[in-house]
Amino acid sequence: MDFRALPSGPITLSDVTIPACLAGRTGGLIRTDLHLRDGRLSKEPGETVAMDGAMVLPCFTDMHTHLDKGHIWPRASNPDGTFMGALETVRADHANWSADDLAPRMEFSLTCAHAHGTRAIRTHLDSMNGQDAISWPVWAEMRDRWAGRIEMQAVCLVPIDAVDDAFAGTADIVGEHGGLLGAVTYPVDDLRPRLRLFFEMASARGLSADFHVDETLDPTSETLRAIAETVIETGFDAPVVVGHCCSLSSQDEARALDTLDLVARAGLNVVSLPMCNLYLQDRQAGRTPRMRGITLVHEMRERGIPVAFASDNTRDPFYAYGDMDMLEVWREATRIGHLDHARDDWVTSVTTEPSAICGFGRSDLSPGAPADLVIFRVRTWTELLARPQSDRIVLRDGIAIDRTLPDYRDLDRMVSP
């Protein structure tokens, strides 16, 4: 089968492998036919194309990225691979973040994501010290430029101790651009009043919330618990996403599970970033890391908590690698989090689950869904996850796209040291 030679017009992809959970059916992988007509999956057959068991997935949703930081590594590498090394290096590099610098780097990342089969992205935007006035208009231009190819959302990113009366200015910018309110939470003495102020500002502007939470292996860091309790106390009813939640993995089991019961009660959504957390957490010079940094994803799903995986950072001080490829994220999440030998619907964590959490619309394999598909010349999970699958085909509205990746040399003007 030649992936690059699918005919135009209504077609039937005959004998494909799909996850049953993405077609409203039970079980693991199944063999079936998919009908494509007028840019959507259909019940009506078209010209038959024998697929010989090729696996088909919906295009991916990447719900936690940092397009503003992407690809600065050549000029701003992490000096020691630690979290603090990343934080300090990025803060110093903010001086370079003009509109002319941000736009080409965002364009590069979006081109990669599109070529790999991502249809929707949520990005966090550093919004301190006047950067919000620069980055948000650039992101809005990117959102409009990429409309029809990648649907985009954005979240402001500030430390929780910057959530004060002056934060209202940033919240206004977010509201004007149709974004989400966000913050990084960690233990501070006045965490609860700052969280209440945060939710008051979000409610006043009709904004959803998306936090970076407990990105540490310090078991005393319990801001996830504080967020859940504050949501319950305030009755905040817009969607709330919490990302990272690494400290749960180092806490006493009973305490961690009790916190997850609160998270479920509060209706929070979780996004895990396994590649970045594996890179940063438990890093000490001359010492082999002992902990993975992944949060308690199995225990979360057992409680009905929506869980997704996402790229996070790409070639910046927080993560030196990555290519905005959600198949790579899924492959590494499976290995790091032992998603194999578990439930058979974990694939939803990079497809339907993040799409539903963010409100991006349908991303499944049932009739009526968009014919936004990624096709792989494999038939089983082990075949899929064993290789990078560089020969995949990506269909958007049922039509194969150009999957040419951009050249890193295109960024030399911006990021050369």
TrEMBL record:
InterPro entries: Amidohydro_3, Metal-dep_hydrolase_composite, Metal_Hydrolase, Metallo-hydrolase_Enzymes. Residues 198-391 form the Amidohydrolase domain. Its EC number is 3.5.4.1. GO terms for molecular function: cytosine deaminase activity; isoguanine deaminase activity. SUPFAM superfamilies: Metallo-dependent hydrolases. Keywords: Hydrolase. Gene3D superfamilies: Metal-dependent hydrolases, Urease, subunit C, domain 1. The keyword Cell membrane does not apply. GO terms for biological process: cytosine catabolic process. The keyword Hydrolase applies. Pfam families: Amidohydro_3. PANTHER family: CYTOSINE DEAMINASE (PTHR32027). This is CodA_1 protein. It comes from Jannaschia aquimarina. The gene is codA_1.
